[in-house]
């Protein structure tokens, strides 16, 4: 049975976050619209094209930051699954950094763009879930299960 503190869960969630980050980037670049435009509430294009002062921290558009962030977290999650130790602390710091950005990102969606980005919302949920899981496993006494982290046969 898969334990809640199995590092593979964070690897999978990071991979899913990276996938949605790529979808958001492709949508922003107008390569693909995907399923991000759903009615009047979910209109990713409205979110992508808010003024640059909101959308381009450090001069790089948020749709570029998302896949970069999740690719880094994917690598850190794999290293955590294999080695633990320092990588567990680095992973916690990464999820915390992401979670600290979520309120700002939701503010930009709701107050500036007056619309939601479905891909972004999925990524926000993944970041918060990964932070909650990491905190639970690291600070509440649960042990990360690292014995054969990538092999589950029951």
Average pLDDT, all residues: 85
Main β sheet profile: 2 strands, antiparallel
Fraction of residues in H or I helices: 55-70%
Order of helices and strands: HEEHHHHH
Task: Please tally the β strands and state the result.
Answer: 2
Count of alpha and pi helical runs: 6
Class from secondary-structure proportions? mainly alpha
- Tell the overall outline: elongated
The CATH topology name reads: de novo design (two linked rop proteins)
Rg from Cα: 17 Å
Strand content: under 5%
Summarize the structure in short.
Helix content is about 65%, strand content about 5%. The protein has helices at about 5-30, 45-50, 50-55, 60-85, 85-115, 120-140; strands at about 35-40, 40-45.
Describe the structure.
By secondary structure, the chain is mainly alpha-helical. It has a single domain, classed as VKOR domain (de novo design (two linked rop proteins)). Helix content is 67%, strand content 3%. It contains six helices and two strands. It has a two-stranded antiparallel sheet with strand order 1-2. A hairpin with a 3-residue loop joins strand 1 and strand 2. Helix 5 packs antiparallel against helix 6. It starts with 6 loop residues before the first helix and ends in a 15-residue tail after the last helix.
């Amino acid at each position: 049975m898969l334990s809640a503190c199995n590092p593979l869960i964070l690897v999978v969630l990071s991979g899913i976050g990276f996938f949605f980050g790529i979808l958001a980037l492709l949508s922003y670049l107008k390569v693909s619209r995907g399923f991000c435009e759903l009615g009047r509430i979910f209109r990713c294009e409205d979110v992508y094209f808010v003024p640059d002062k909101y959308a381009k921290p450090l001069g790089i558009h948020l749709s570029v930051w998302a896949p970069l962030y999740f690719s880094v977290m994917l690598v850190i999650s794999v290293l955590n699954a294999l080695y633990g130790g320092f990588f567990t602390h680095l992973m916690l710091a990464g999820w915390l950094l992401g979670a600290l950005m979520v309120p700002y990102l939701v503010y930009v969606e709701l107050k500036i763009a007056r619309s939601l980005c479905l891909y972004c919302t999925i990524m926000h949920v993944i970041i918060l879930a990964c932070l909650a899981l990491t905190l639970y496993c690291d600070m509440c006494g649960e042990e990360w299960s690292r014995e054969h982290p990538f092999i589950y046969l029951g």
